[in-house]
Amino acid sequence: MQNTTRDQWLGKARTLSEALPYMRRYAGRTFVIKYGGHAMGDAGLAELFARDIVLLKQVGINPVVVHGGGPQIGQMLSRLKIQSSFIDGLRVTDRETVEIVEMVLSGSINKQIVAAINAAGGRSVGISGKDAQLLTARKVTRTQRDPDSNIEKVLDLGFVGEPYQVNPQIIDSLVQADIIPVIAPIGFDRNGDTYNINADTAAGAIAGALGATRFFLLTDVAGVLDKEKTLIPRLTLEQAQACIKDGTASGGMIPKIETCIGAVEQGVDAAVILDGRVPHALLLEIFTEGGAGTLIGRD
Ligand SMILES: Nc1ncnc2c1ncn2[C@@H]1O[C@H](COP(=O)(O)OP(=O)(O)O)[C@@H](O)[C@H]1O
Ligand SMILES: CC(=O)N[C@@H](CCC(=O)OP(=O)(O)O)C(=O)O
After folding, report:
1. What is the ipTM of this complex?
2. Locate the Aspartate/glutamate/uridylate kinase domain: which residues (predicted)?
3. Which listed residue, of 56, 76, 148, 156, carries a Cα 20 to 30 Å from 93's Cα?
4. Is 251's C-beta closer than 6 angstroms to any atom of ligand 1?
5. Which ligand is nearest to the CA of 39?
């Protein structure tokens, strides 16, 4: 019994000691963390996530949180009896829907995350892509070939946007004031229209514009899995492309990998896809030798 306790203590000490070189390496660096709607489902996990973000700040890293909330938007729309459909993983968003999307993302979810970080001892401020012109969006278009006529038609997704211009000044100002920014993926255009932006895409564009050292995508799988469902710990940009081409990645994993590739090409050192349902997934990934998810980097 006594030995177990001693071994446990030694184990904890070893883990803390192992973290030291990583703390040194990452002090002063910016990490962008995309916190997905599935990953934030459980209240206990959400509290641990907030504590981990505060810990990162405490050891000198500058965390920037970009959140999603797809399942929560879906719940609100069904409560209001508004139908919702998706094209290529993007929610078709009419004028009525974009109001609900903004209300759920910028209103309730954003403030819940901010409150959790503040309750864990951090100083956090919630903004959306509309604040200080952070995310100018342009309308997303998709085309589909009609199988009978073979004619390509343009599909209208409504107010679905993609980042066109990222102006990260407001993030820099918050970071310099030691505040942890929490960002809702809502954009605007010059006509004053509001756009619903996929949270992965928004986070990747922000990570790229900030030249972040790391970009983390917290999701509901261990990372990128191979065809035998085994976790792939590391992918080069070429290998990541191949995963999409050869069908290893499908569905929601495709835009995630594409976003990671885009972020690395824009100057992010490495992007990591990891399981947000694992307690302290971020800490394990950042401060331990093995890491926890799939790291996508230049080499
Ligand atoms: N090779 C793969 N490795 C891991 N997940 C994959 C792979 N191919 C497809 N997926 C699917 O991608 C999903 C993650 O994308 P998505 O559901 O859009 O996540 P989120 O809601 O967190 O944005 C996984 O739950 C899994 O079903
Ligand atoms: C255009 C589009 O599809 N926007 C997403 C925005 C939220 C999101 O991306 O949330 P997750 O990261 O939790 O999936 C949506 O409406 O669901």
Report:
1. 0.93
2. 30-274
3. 148
4. yes
5. 1
Span 246-284, pLDDT tens digits: 999 988 898 899 999 999 999 999 999 999 888 888 998
Give which of 253, 170, 160, 257 is closest to 215, Cα–Cα: 257
Q: Give the Å distance between the CA of 73 and the centre of ligand 2.
A: 8
Enclosing domain of residue 218: 28-297
* Any domain includes 222: yes
In a domain, 7, yes or no: no
CATH code assigned at 87 = 3.40.1160.10
Q: Facing residues of 65 across strands?
A: 33, 182
Structurally, the chain folds into a number of domains equal to 1
Residue 20 lies in a domain: no
